[in-house]
Write a structure and sequence with these properties.
alpha+beta, Ribosomal Protein S5, domain 2
Length: 103
């Protein structure tokens, strides 16, 4: 997995994102100006109480997104509490499918 670049906080509220919502997550993608792939993953305390579990979902999401998406893109993924009912494989498959269809 290549070194990730951080998505600036101001970009979270900008317009122009293509959005896909599922019970597991909300995915937003937008082209950027040749800044490479930048990924922001948000997993709140309403999803998982412990930091270890929140970090687990972040690692899973970043891994899938770096494999599924290439080019100069800004990606914001907001994980929803419904992810607790999904297995790791179901989450990864749903995210990969959504990432490919939203591009």
């Amino acid at each position: 997995m290549p070194a990730a670049k951080r998505l600036p906080r101001a970009e979270f509220q900008s317009r122009g994102f293509s959005t896909m919502r599922t019970p597991l997550f909300s995915l937003k993608i937008k082209k950027n100006d040749a800044k490479g792939l930048r990924v922001g993953v948000v997993v709140g305390k309403s999803v998982e109480k412990t930091a270890a579990k929140r970090n687990f979902w972040k690692r899973q999401a970043k891994s899938v997104l770096h494999d599924a998406i290439r080019g100069n893109q800004d990606i914001i993924l907001i994980v929803q509490p419904g992810v607790r009912t999904a297995t790791r494989k179901e989450f990864r498959d749903a995210l990969a499918k959504s990432a490919k269809s939203i591009r």
